[in-house]
Write a structure and sequence with these properties.
264 residues; alpha+beta; Fructose-1,6-Bisphosphatase, Chain A, domain 1; D-Maltodextrin-Binding Protein, domain 2; 2 domains; 5-stranded mixed β-sheet; 15 strands; globular; binds D-MYO-inositol-1-phosphate; binds calcium ion
């Protein structure tokens, strides 16, 4: 079975197992601090268990790097890493806001740049985004590309949740220049939507993004033809560590990148 098919099946199983939970008391159950540093909710635990059970069922030889469960070695001779954010946008999921997803990626080495496959499923409706290295990015069964044409409305995604006042002040010219800035509360799904051409740029300069938040989005954005840079405008890369935090700018083309970056 191809790795992408394994990730797609795991993602599909998450959707089946959690689709009735959003907004319920059952979703919210508190399981204490997870490996990623946030409180693990019952919906997070159910979704992660779904993936771990499936990978064990098919005897997939890998190391899982889960946002809640931490590092789980499923084999002594692993083929690589499954980077798992089983529920991205947990606050939305717990409150019942229909914008959250699962994010699963596979990397052969301890680096973001070694990611070969990624799948993001919108868990409010089951829509799936996926990509494999050099094979393009897909939304359900349709190939997707970032938005290359001059858009009718420029949509500028900016994650400002919990941002410092210094960062907000730095970004202020962008809020003034663009009438349509957006943040929906699930970074991975926002990257997938950016890859599909629904936003022209997506910026997160808070230095809070974990490897699990970005792993699947990384390959989907690249395969859809997007630029993916760090805060110094270098190619984004990072170690797959639990301490790693990144900032990034995903841009549909050089023109929108230059235009927005010139504001800050
Ligand atoms: C969070 C979401 C959110 C972003 C946070 C992440 P989680 O992930 O991606 O959009 O602002 O930085 O931690 O905790 O819901 O998996
Ligand atoms: Ca996350
Ligand atoms: Ca999560």
């Amino acid at each position: 079975m191809e790795i992408i098919e394994i990730l797609r099946e795991a993602s599909k199983r998450i959707y089946e197992n959690v689709k009735d939970l959003p907004g319920t008391d059952k979703a919210a159950g508190d399981f204490g601090l997870g490996a990623g540093g946030d409180i693990s909710r019952n919906i997070d635990i159910i979704a992660e268990k779904t993936v771990l059970d499936y990978l064990k069922e098919i005897n997939f030889k890998c190391v899982v790097l889960g946002e809640e469960c931490g590092r789980v070695e499923l084999s002594e001779k692993p083929k690589g890493f499954v980077i798992m954010d089983a529920i991205d946008g947990s606050a939305n999921a717990v409150r019942g806001v229909p914008f959250f997803c699962s994010s699963l990626a596979f990397a052969t080495e301890n680096k973001l740049s070694s990611i070969s496959d990624g799948v993001i499923t919108n868990l409010s409706n089951g829509e799936m985004y996926w990509a494999s290295k050099n094979q393009g990015a897909f939304y359900n069964n349709k190939e997707i590309k970032v938005h290359k044409k001059d858009p009718i409305y420029k949509i500028v995604g900016i994650n400002t949740s919990g941002a410092s006042i210094e960062l907000i002040n730095k970004l202020q010219p962008i809020f003034e220049k663009y009438d349509h800035t957006r943040h929906f509360g699930a970074n991975a799904l926002e990257m997938a939507m950016f890859a599909r051409g629904l936003m022209d740029i997506f910026i997160d300069l808070r230095n809070k993004i974990r490897i699990q938040d970005i792993a699947a989005g990384y390959i989907i954005v690249k395969e859809a033809g997007g630029l993916l840079l760090d805060s110094n405008l270098h190619q984004l890369d990072a170690d797959l560590g639990y301490e790693t935090r990144v900032s990034f700018i995903a841009a549909a083309n050089q023109e929108i990148l230059d235009e927005v970056v010139s504001q800050i």
